[in-house]
Amino acid sequence: MDVTLLERGRVAENVQRWGHVRLFTPFGMNSSELGRSALREQGRNLPDDDALLTGAEFVEHYLQPLSELPELRQGLHEEADVFTIGRSSTWKGDLIGDPLRGEAPFRILVRDAASEQIVEADFVFDCSGTFGNHNWLGDGGIPCPGELDYECDIEHGLPDLAGDARAEYAGRHTLLVGSGYSAATNLVALAGIAAETPETRITWLTRRSGTTPITLIDNDPLVDRKNLTATANDLATRSDGPVDWLPGHSVTALTPADDDDGFEVTVRSLSDGTERTFPVDRIIANVGFRPDRSIYEELQVHECYASQGPMRLAAKLLGETSADCLVQPTPDADLLTNPEPGFFILGSKSYGRNSRFLLQTGLQQIHDVLSLLPSGAATG
Predict the structure, then answer these.
(1) pTM
(2) Taking a C-beta distance cutoff of 8 angstroms, is the pair 283, 159 a contact?
(3) Quick check: helix, strand or coil at residue 40?
(4) Tens-place pLDDT, residues 286-300
(5) Beta-bridge mates of residue 123
(6) pLDDT by residue (tens digit) across 125-165?
(7) In 3D, which of 150, 142, 130, 39 has the Cα closest to residue 362?
(8) Which domains does the chain have, with CATH numbers?
């Protein structure tokens, strides 16, 4: 197949942004046999299959070398921003349910710093992910008053709290929001700062109530995930540490602090509606991410009304009750199809707002979808 890969930034740019974080899952789960074989043929030494790499190590030892392979490099276009996708001479409302719609090539508007161009393709894989499209702090999932004004001052990811970002949080009061593993990772790092700088304080707010903020998976096979969960839960429930845990709360307002360095935060109890306001210096909002659906709004895509992922896969995922991301539905290429012929949403974006996606799942999706395509096609 003639393949064009349109990369919005540089290769693995998002992974680089959390490069200091160590993955729970081993290298063998996060790489494909085809990729490993191709690199070994080039004389590359690869990590052991059971190695737990940081994001930066994953880029250095796998993703970057993979992108430099001759058969991949010629089709790779970095700093190429896909603005939107349509079909030639075919509008969104044309040929509904008609296979003739698939005979019109896709038209992809691509922008870079200097120009715009149209790229055509017979098939399109949208693997653009969700990273960078954060959810909101406010009650009900919408921005709380003041949040839009301070969006750029709120951290939504995993800052290097043991490195470059340490000085921003040492000796300060941080509001941490979220009840997933990103929040747990930040909490443990902030507590490490507090051990060296006692003035450091953390208020950890979770929408979830219960005896602990993070659900412990029974007999968790991922040792680092198990240890992170246990450490974060212990920090949250201790009475003698730097963490004040507020379960069952949401943020209802942000206003500037009197000294213009920090915030006055108002939070509300979800059980009885009582509110309280207190000052904080920094906010880390690990509230999850959502897909950017704007690039395919001119296509006929059937989306889940709850997760915003492709409907057929979303329905399958909603039937899964385990909190363990290792428990996944049986792979089925048909789950990845939708009413738009030849258009597939793959990778973490295929899970919508569901955070249980694994790199291993994305690799299997690519394999399964390729089996549906005829040879000799052009793919974007």
Answers:
(1) 0.92
(2) no
(3) helix
(4) 999 999 999 999 999
(5) 379
(6) 999 999 989 999 999 999 999 999 999 999 999 999 999 99
(7) 130
(8) 2-131+290-379 (3.50.50.60), 139-285 (3.50.50.60)
